[in-house]
Fold these 3 entries.
Entry 1:
Amino acid sequence: MSDSKVVFLDVDGTITTYENMIPDSAKRAIQAARENGHKVLMCTGRSKAENPPELVEIGFDGMIGGNGAYVEVSDRVVMHAHVTAEQCRRIVDWCHARGLEFYLESNNGLFASENFREAARPMLRLYAGRKGVGNAEALETDDVMHGVIYGGELYRDDVNKVSFILSSYQDYLDAVRDFPDMKVGTWGGAGETALFGDMGVKDIDKARAVRVAVEALGADMADTVAMGDAKVDIPMFEACATSVCMGSGGEEARAAADFVTTRVDDDGLWNAFSHLHLI
């Protein structure tokens, strides 16, 4: 074990608010921790194209994207697991047949289905409202999601994962049945209140990606810290030596973490870094 830590940060609700705003205290915490010799990496469901310039410009030592499908350390890609072109075609056709709007998450962009902007608006407002966003009812799809491309090719070979709007929880259950070769999950809420389904590469999660990144850094898992706010972060919590849940986190994530800090917009990142003596 060393004094230098490797810190893995979820993005939405951890570094940024759910309206994509980055508190100054979060920027300062990340930059101060790196100046103190710690490594700080994003570990997010986002693909690289979803990161706006103001997020990238904070400065990071690497990125885990697509909930573990993509691992980049010190500007070097050390792992990238894609959905196959055939799987992508099947997913697109399945969603179209069911009338479900979706987007393909690639490092080259978020390629959305024909009516995604309109269909996603109420879902994203509900999602933001559940997370305590004050002006959630006024949010537009493009306020919440960066890098969305409309009218692009939907049969692709560069996809990390796919998210689709649930018309009911049955869509998720049917996806599990129809895509046994995929990792199928939900997000936007707990259990049957989920708003979106997603499909990605089987046997991929944030925990596996964290181990790949730590090995690439030549570091030790005993020196790792994970911070997040959602159920998808729990494997990362379990893999890392220390885990922190944000104040806006769901019940399961809070229960799985070593401690709970304040909300992202209430200096949650800064307070956690101070608690852990990273700054």
Entry 2:
Amino acid sequence: MSGLLLENKNAVIYGGGGAIGGAIARVFAREGARVFIAGRTQERLDAVARDIAATGATVETAYVDVLDQQAVGKHADAIAATAGSIDIALNAVSVMHDQGTLLADLSLEEFMRPIDGFLRTLFITSKAVARHMGHTRPGVILTLSEPGAKLAVGGILGHGVSAAGKEAFSRLLAAELAPSNIRVINIRPHAVVDAPAAGSYTQDLFKASAAAAGQSVQEFLEGGMAQGTLLKRLPTLSEIAETAAFMASDRAGAMTGTIANLSAGALVD
């Protein structure tokens, strides 16, 4: 068995310039994958690519709007034509959404924003890559959700419904693609403690809640949110990335249709 988890694998990461997508791209490359990162902010993609290239690994970037089904399809086709196949795909796309507004004051548009945005990108990217996966080369599609999928708290209607939708999508897609030798696994982290420093949208997402508590976003995450978990801490980017690499590898070949719970005990399944 190779010492590298993802040796000779071709991996595409949508949202590869973000905090989570970038962290996973770096670990995938370290573990031997040829990495293709796509997103809508070229500067962030380039920053991740420079880190990967500096290690001698192979990486390519592409400006792709994941809400454009035709563009995503062409990009996936081009990767398959260049690399021969797509073995791993991760959707790490972020969609800004409201957290904290109760039903009485929540607009339909804000409620639907994460539901439509997250699920639309999952459908588009999964459909684009699935036709280039599986059969003689095992394929893996990784998705990301949040504890809001199962938490019973107020003020996260759109967020919670979209998270539950992402988990249902992953489970149902796993059943559909299993005959083609494609696994589908959802990874459920909590808010990520080191994401603000890494440039994720976490800073904007929790700014209002933190301000209401008289705290910085980092204080808000490390204080109140972390204390709501069994481990009294939040997951790190490294923990999420290392888990993703294992789940994408052949060593996790019997796992599909399931959720990797990285919520630090915010949820106990």
Entry 3:
Amino acid sequence: MSKAGAPDFFYREAQRLGYVARSAFKLLQIQNQYKLIKPGSSVLDLGCAPGAWLQVACQSLGPLKNGGSVVGVDLKKVKVPSIHCDARVQTVFADVMKLPKHQVRALSPQHKGFSVILSDMCPLVSGISTKDAALSFELGMRALDLAVGSAAILADGDNKDGQSDKSISCSDDAGVLKAGGHLVVKLLESEDIQEFSRICKPLFKKSSWLRPKATRSSSREIYLICQSLKS
């Protein structure tokens, strides 16, 4: 069992296979289990640095002739990896927390929205568990708001005994995830994750938690896989 940051099996495999980070194996496992990304899918990758999920997403689209697109957004400037990516992949240097939905939608094919939204966003860890978990929840809620729109979240919030204040300030425009689309959100384990799951559950046909095998033993991260957004 490796210490955080120490080379391990997944790190070595990433180097061998040309992935820019070991995190590629987290999305590979998600994709193998849930088959979220299909040929022709339009994928939005929130918090895309350093680009490993861009690589896996593009691979999952299949050959270039199948079409599809992958758009990565990050606070850091991310160069599209030369391996496992092709012309269908682009990156945008922007703050997800401040990016208006209409600008996000404009990044999708024909401005019609995305079929898959991936959020691997994580706050700068302070080491204070409650603070880190709260920041992670905020990032998760932002991803959900971009996906489904604040109207859907607030409608659910009417039944939550005032808990909807955690959903951060959002405009009431529609989300950018297509009906039937899928959402993957990373959170740090805390009591808040069940609240997040409870908000998502009525919005999607199916939702389930996954802790990928490539997750370091010292990490508290866990992913909520939300499948088939209800229309």
